[in-house]
Amino acid sequence: MSTGSDRPRVLGGAPGGFRDRLRQKARGVAIRVLGMEFDTEERAPTSRPKVAPGDIDLSVIPKLVDGDGDTPGPNHREDIGRTWVAAQLAGGVAPYFIDLRPPAEVVAGTLPGARLLPGRLVEQRLAELPADREVRVTVFDQTGELGSAEVAAWLRSAGWPMARRLRGGYAEWLEHAEPIELPQPCAGGRLRPGDPVRGPDGREGRVLRSVLSPTGPEIEVYLPSGEVLGPVPEAQLLHGS
Length: 241
Known about the structure:
By secondary structure, the protein is α/β, with parallel strands linked by helices.
């Protein structure tokens, strides 16, 4: 059996030092990705006691559950996990995000570049989806249980086979401090998605979208009934309460 003194020296350093540091770094990355810092101690590889299978208390072993972020991966047919989406975003190959939440919830933030299409509005606006139907589409609501699975399934049946639900929804994304962006008005505008407004006919709603037209900023207003008013020139809208 070899001992520590038998290990080859790497680049003139301490015996096996580079290899050990690399192994330790990989272990640390894995621990952070899996969110296990709270349950980890530094242990020598040979210090782990041998335990008979019958002595294991299964009740104390944490279980992977829906929405834990690490599963499922990109090959799942219906869902995708938070960490996979975050990795795609960091790698510059982010999916096309569809935010199903009401505009009132979006004003505090959304996934970067997300298209706001609350409820089942996406079914009426397929022209806004990518022309390349093989593009990955990630659909999310607040918790992952408020309609995103159904909308993703509908999109797959409508010809976007890579549509997936984000497990855990926006709540889990935010809880783990993943990147978000705040909605902004269009150039020259003052109203941003989610802002309360009152239309020329007195009806109140929330800004769905702010776009710049040749005549100035125009607003689409999402009404409580689920209807969309507009586009309306921003100058004709009053800021609601």
